[in-house]
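Morning, I've got a small favour to ask if you have a moment. I owe you a coffee for this, so here goes:
>
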Amino acid sequence: MFSFYNNTIPAPPLGDGRKEADSCILIPMATTTKKQNTFMSTPLQDSSLADVPGVGAVACARLNEAGIISSEQLMGHFLISNRSAVIMTQWLIVSGVRAQEAGKIAAALECKARATVSV
């Protein structure tokens, strides 16, 4: 189970016939923010770490302590985490990011990766 925006959403089961792009539902369209829209439409090299949805001052400090200083590095960590929002969320929590923000960050990275990185 994932917990985003104080709502519990069951993780999509593997092998259910859906395409990978169909599972990019962790941030419901009704709650898409200006920050999310900006992040999705801006190239990573032009985005700062603070531009990633879910990254505020405290999360930014925690990520800096973990060696992540740019949105590109954060995306790189997501990609080497097998492009898994679950693995990324767990890593963010272990790094000191609050669970709610960790979920938002992982969901934003998953959506950005699906939109920009081909497999």
Residues 1-30 have pLDDT under 50 and may be disordered. The first strand starts at residue 2 and ends at 4.
